C-alpha cells in the first residue's frame, strides 16, 4: 500500500446493505459508494475504500440499505393540490364533473409552481429522484424542478381543444418545440411530447408529434388503453384498437412511453415488441379508478420494457413510489396467477433501471455503477415496522413505505438528509398549499 494509490473524492457513503440493481438480484453488505462531482466514482467494499479513497465528507449509514434513486415515470405533479378532492368515482365522471372543472377554475402559473413543489417535496421524501410530468405550463414545471435540483422529464400537453396553456394543437406544438430547444443538452430537464390520449388527439397532431420527436429526439408519452371503454369506443368509431391506430401513424417506437395499458391483446403485445415502445404501469391509479389491470409480468416476459409511475395524486392518492412498487408486485402475482411473478428484485428494477431505459438514459441512471450519475437514496431499516431484516430487497418491496427514506442525492447534491428536505422550505410551502386548499374548498361549497 502506497500513498499514490489514494484518490481524493467528494463524498463517501458507508452502507450496511447495497442493492446496485445491476446486476439484478444482488444484495451487497458493508459497501462504500464514492461520489466525485456529479458521478459515482466507485462502489466497493468498505475495507477497500479505506485504502483507495480520501473524501471530504463521510456518511455512515449502519442500519440502511442504499440503492439508486427511484424513477417515477408518470404523473401530473401539480394535481397534488387536488389530492382527496374527489374520490370513489369512475374515470369519466371523475374527469368531467370534478377534475376538469377544478382545473378550469384554478390552473395558473402560480398554481402549477406551488402544486409541483408540493409533489416534489413528497417524491423526494419517499425516494424518487427522477419524475415524469404531463401537465399545463410545462415551462414552469421544468424551471421548478431545475431550481430544486430534481431530474425530470417534462411532457408538454398536446390536445385537440384549447386549454389554459394554448389555443389548440398548433400552439401546443410550437410552444413545446421552444421548450425542447430551451433545455437542449440539460442534465436535469428532459422535455418530451405529451399527447394526452388517442381519444383527445386526432391523426394530424399525432403525426406532427412524431415528426417533432424525430427532429429533436424528444420522447413521446401518451395515456393508452387506460380503460375497456376507450378501446371499445375506438373499435366502434375507427374500426381499430387505439394501439393499432398509433402504430399506423408511427407513434409507437423506442422513444414512446405508453401509460396504463390495462387492455392488452396478443396483437397489442406484437405491436409493442415490434416497435420497442415502453409501457408505464400505474397500478394504484388503475385500481382506484377501476380502470383494469396491466399484465405486467406477461409484458416483461415478452421483453417489453416496463417502468412504473404513480399518476397524479388526485387518482392515487400519494406519490410514494415504494407503495406503488409494492402494489405492482402484488397485483402482478394475482393477474399472472403466479406468486413468483414480479419478484422483489425485479420490482425494484422496474422502478429504477427500467425507468432509465424508457428515458433513453440507461447508461447514466438507474443503477449504482461507477461512471453513472450520483442519484442515490438510503432507506433506514432499523424501525420496528421493518425488523428483523433477513432480506433488504424483500423489505423494500413488501414491508417498507417511502417515509423510511432518510437520505438522497441527485447529481451528487444532497436533497434529503436525516429525513429532512434540504432545498425546499416546507413551512413556507405549507402556507401556500393551505391558501389553495381554502380556495378549492370554497369552490366545492358554492
Ligand atoms: Zn395520467
In short:
With 446 residues, this protein is α/β, with parallel strands linked by helices. The chain has 16 helices and 16 strands.
Can you walk through the features of this model?
The chain is an alpha/beta fold and 446 residues long. The protein is 39% helix and 23% strand. The protein is built from 16 helices and 16 strands. It has helices at residues 46-52, 91-106, 109-125, 138-148, 169-182, 203-216, 228-238, 242-248, 266-275, 283-288, 296-301, 321-336, 344-350, 353-358, 392-399, 426-445, and strands at residues 7-18, 28-36, 39-45, 53-68, 70-72, 128-134, 151-158, 189-195, 220-224, 256-260, 278-281, 306-308, 376-380, 405-410, 413-417, 420-421. The protein has an eight-stranded mixed beta sheet with strand order 3-2-1-4-13-14-15-16, covered by helices on one side. Strands 5-6-7-8 form a four-stranded parallel beta sheet. Strand 10, helix 9 and strand 11 (278-281) form a beta-alpha-beta unit. Helix 3 crosses helix 4 (138-148), helix 12 (321-336) crosses helix 13 and helix 12 crosses helix 15 (392-399). The longest helix has 20 residues, at 426-445. It is globular.
Amino acid at each position: 500500500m502506497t500513498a499514490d494509490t489514494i484518490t481524493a473524492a467528494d463524498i463517501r457513503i458507508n452502507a450496511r446493505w447495497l442493492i446496485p440493481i445491476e446486476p439484478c438480484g444482488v444484495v451487497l453488505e458493508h459497501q462504500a459508494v464514492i461520489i466525485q462531482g456529479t458521478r459515482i466514482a466507485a462502489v466497493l467494499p468498505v475495507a477497500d475504500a479505506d485504502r483507495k479513497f480520501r473524501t471530504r465528507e463521510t456518511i455512515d449509514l449502519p442500519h440502511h440499505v442504499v440503492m439508486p434513486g427511484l424513477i417515477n415515470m408518470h404523473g401530473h405533479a401539480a394535481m397534488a393540490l387536488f389530492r382527496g378532492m374527489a374520490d370513489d368515482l369512475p374515470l369519466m365522471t371523475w374527469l368531467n364533473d370534478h377534475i376538469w372543472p377544478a382545473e378550469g377554475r384554478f390552473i395558473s402559473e402560480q398554481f402549477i409552481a406551488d402544486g409541483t413543489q408540493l409533489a416534489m417535496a413528497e417524491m423526494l421524501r419517499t425516494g424518487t429522484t427522477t419524475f415524469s410530468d404531463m401537465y399545463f405550463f410545462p415551462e414552469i414545471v421544468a424551471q421548478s424542478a431545475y431550481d430544486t435540483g430534481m431530474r425530470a422529464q417534462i411532457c408538454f400537453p398536446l390536445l385537440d381543444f384549447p386549454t389554459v396553456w394554448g389555443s389548440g394543437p398548433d400552439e401546443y406544438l410550437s410552444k413545446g418545440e421552444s421548450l425542447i430547444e430551451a433545455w437542449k443538452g440539460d442534465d436535469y430537464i428532459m422535455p418530451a411530447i405529451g399527447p394526452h390520449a388517442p381519444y383527445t388527439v386526432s391523426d394530424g397532431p399525432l403525426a406532427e408529434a412524431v415528426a417533432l420527436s424525430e427532429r429533436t429526439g424528444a420522447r413521446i408519452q401518451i395515456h393508452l388503453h387506460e380503460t375497456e371503454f376507450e378501446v371499445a369506443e375506438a373499435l366502434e368509431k375507427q374500426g381499430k384498437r387505439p394501439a393499432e391506430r398509433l402504430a399506423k401513424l408511427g407513434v409507437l417506437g423506442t422513444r414512446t412511453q405508453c401509460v396504463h395499458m390495462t387492455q392488452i391483446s396478443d396483437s397489442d403485445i406484437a405491436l409493442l415488441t415490434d416497435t420497442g415502445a415502453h409501457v408505464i404501469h400505474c397500478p394504484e391509479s388503475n385500481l382506484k379508478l377501476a380502470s383494469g389491470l396491466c399484465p405486467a409480468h406477461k409484458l416483461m416476459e415478452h421483453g417489453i420494457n416496463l417502468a412504473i409511475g404513480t399518476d397524479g395524486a388526485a387518482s392515487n392518492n400519494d406519490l410514494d413510489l415504494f407503495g406503488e412498487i409494492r402494489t405492482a408486485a402484488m397485483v402482478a402475482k394475482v393477474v399472472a396467477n403466479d406468486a413468483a411473478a414480479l419478484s422483489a428484485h425485479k420490482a425494484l428494477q422496474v422502478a429504477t433501471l427500467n425507468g432509465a431505459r424508457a428515458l433513453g438514459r440507461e447508461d447514466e441512471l438507474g443503477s449504482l455503477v461507477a461512471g453513472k450519475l450520483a442519484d442515490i437514496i438510503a432507506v433506514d431499516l432499523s424501525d420496528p415496522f421493518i425488523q428483523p431484516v433477513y432480506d433488504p430487497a424483500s423489505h423494500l418491496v413488501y414491508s417498507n413505505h417511502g417515509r423510511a427514506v432518510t437520505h438522497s442525492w441527485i447529481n451528487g447534491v444532497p436533497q434529503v438528509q436525516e429525513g429532512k428536505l434540504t432545498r425546499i422550505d416546507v413551512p413556507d410551502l405549507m402556507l401556500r398549499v393551505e391558501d389553495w386548499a381554502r380556495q378549492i374548498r370554497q369552490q366545492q361549497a358554492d
